[in-house]
Design a protein that fits this description.
Elements: H1 10-30, E1 39-43, H2 49-56, E2 65-68, H3 71-80, E3 86-89, H4 95-104, E4 108-114, H5 117-133, E5 144-149, H6 166-176, E6 180-186, H7 191-196, H8 204-219, E7 228-230, H9 237-242, E8 247-250, H10 252-255
Parallel strand pairs: 1-2, 1-8, 2-3, 3-4, 4-5, 5-6, 6-7
Length: about 280
């Protein structure tokens, strides 16, 4: 099955388009001038490739960046969707999946959940293997962007390095992983903190990540803008933007409620609409 063979109902395309336009409008409204608007990553986990294709080929606002949480699902979707998509892996990262993921998915644009040197090394080896496998064409292949995930909330259920350990991991990626590009820092903020923040105040997780970024930049002799902040999801992205986020990761607000993992389909089988 290829992207050319996927059917899209006009009703579904219209709904996705309306949701996307609404999100883009909110991003614009909450981005302080003269700052550039943050990158939008559409989190498509457990959603069919049909939806992704509809948004990627949107006639007015074609989307490039899509995020997945599960390696196997990302692998299958990457096979059948256009190579012009820039994939982000944003889920819990298993060390043994790092090398094959970086090697097999040539249009993997970023991995946002790096939290130790073993995973960084695996991604570096995988991207080096891809460059070697494709020969001369690989000489111009861009480095794989990576974000260091920081556990800003202190929750045991959350992955990520402790804030005080972020600089050490960032330095390892910069100095020891030539096929990787240290793009920035990422956090999954506690939504309760956004919902419970007093009026006029923002989520503490976002403020913490910004502080960690400033400290890491200073320790590594980098400019503040050299490291991006990836923070903010469907329930709190406007707060994240006000706190300086360079990238927001939004799923259900655009795609709607997700099915259970066991009911999810890589490709939705849709009957042709009758004229």
């Amino acid at each position: 099955m290829t992207s050319e063979e996927m059917h899209l109902t006009s009703h579904r395309v219209s709904r996705l388009s309306e949701n996307l336009t609404s999100v883009l409008t909110r991003i614009c409204l909450h981005t302080p001038k003269p700052r550039s608007q943050p990158r939008l990553v559409l989190v498509s986990k457990l959603k069919p490739a049909n939806d992704i294709l509809a948004l990627h080929t949107h006639p007015v606002h074609p989307q490039l960046h899509f995020g997945e949480n599960y390696y196997q699902e990302l692998r299958e979707k990457a096979k059948i969707l256009p190579k012009t998509i820039r994939w982000h892996f944003i889920g819990a990262l298993q060390s043994n999946k790092c090398k094959p993921m970086a090697e097999e998915i040539g249009n993997l644009w970023a991995v946002e959940s790096v939290d130790n040197t073993k995973k960084a090394a695996g991604l570096n080896k995988g991207r080096a293997a891809l460059v070697e496998r494709i020969g001369k064409e690989g000489e111009g292949l861009e480095k794989l962007n990576v974000f260091v995930q920081v556990n800003t909330s202190g929750e045991e259920s959350k992955s990520g390095v402790e804030p005080q350990d972020a600089a050490e991991l960032c330095r390892y990626i910069r100095d020891e992983c030539p096929r990787l590009n240290l793009k920035g820092l990422m956090t999954i903020g506690a939504i309760a903190r956004s919902q419970g923040a007093e009026e006029g105040k923002e989520n503490e997780d976002f403020l913490t990540l910004k502080k960690v970024r400033d400290e890491v930049s200073r320790e590594m002799g980098m400019q503040e803008g050299d490291l991006e902040l990836s923070m903010g999801m469907s329930g709190d992205f406007t707060s994240a933007i006000r706190c300086g986020s360079d990238e927001v990761r939004i799923g259900s607000t655009v795609f709607g409620e997700r099915p259970s993992k066991q009911d999810a389909k890589i490709k939705e089988d849709i009957e042709e609409e009758k004229a």
